[in-house]
Amino acid sequence: MNETINVRRTLVRVGTEYPMVGTLAFGVVDRGTNVVEVRPTSICALSCIFCSVNAGPKSRARAAEYIVDPDALVNAVEEVASYKGTRVEAHIDGMGDPGNYPYLVDLVQEIREVVDVISMQTRLYMLSESKIKELEEAGLTRINLSMDALLPPLARKLSGTNFYDVNSVLRKLGFILNNTKLQVIISPVLLPGLNEGEMEKMGRLVMALKMGDRIKYPLLIQKYLRHKRGRNPIDEEDWDSFWNHLRKLSLEVGLDLIPTGESMSIAPAKELPKPYDVGDVVEVRMLSPGIFNGECLAVPLRRTGSNIYDRVITIVGRPCIPNKRTRTRIIRNKDNIFIGV
Length: 341
Prior knowledge:
five-stranded mixed barrel; disordered N terminus; six-stranded mixed β-sheet; iron; 16 strands; TIM Barrel; about 350 residues; alpha/beta; iron-sulfur cluster binding; rSAM_sf; metal-binding; S-adenosyl-L-methionine
């Protein structure tokens, strides 16, 4: 069912008519490791000025937003976790903030039965203290807190909104550390020329709160990358400059800021099969607009009924006519994300 949420975008309620694998916009993303990305919604109320996926109400690039049926998503996580045959971390993230997902507690509770660790990437501001406790009781293991500045005016500027209150987020962080056993990783994006000075403050904060008592790497600073569809307010720094910055900061605050994949318990794991090769032509039925302008989500006419093999395909550069049958030629299939023309 599709609903209008503003003059430019459609809200798509994603049910079992869509495979849960094949797009970055929702569902399950498998990158060949024991960490499975679980994406329940693309909705975000912020319009961060550096957002790599152009989320939020100010976006001019997005055509649709998505909310996934929880049963369909749980079923997909169960299938993928079973297929991998190893200890799996479900990382709840997305092209929006999963904290906005109305069935978040139910999702965590249901997938807890089939995975070993459940982490979530969020800006936290939308979650009440009672909701945080509910998530812990449901089985959430860790919160990866997206927070890019401690200075309130700068935090608001970076968020692209006037209502974002970093002090409220800090109070909720304090609640988590004092009233739950949840692990927390603060994960800011380093934006050269905008928030370098905030990184040391965050390191000092992490040390003062003794967040390292719960997890080995409580501060993970991310490199800013320009993206084709993203908001790109600044130029990228090179990787050498980024790593040198982290090494210097590590010495200044006494905190290891350069973890390895192994130290984060990330390991190669059985990858989902790719049912289509680049160049294959697939008969499909168009269903709804893709997340960005000029895209259309389609499903193959021939399906197995399993998320291990079925894929949703994003068709680019063609009008999106729901229920139209057509053919599409696959031009990309990396990480089981399928793009067709």
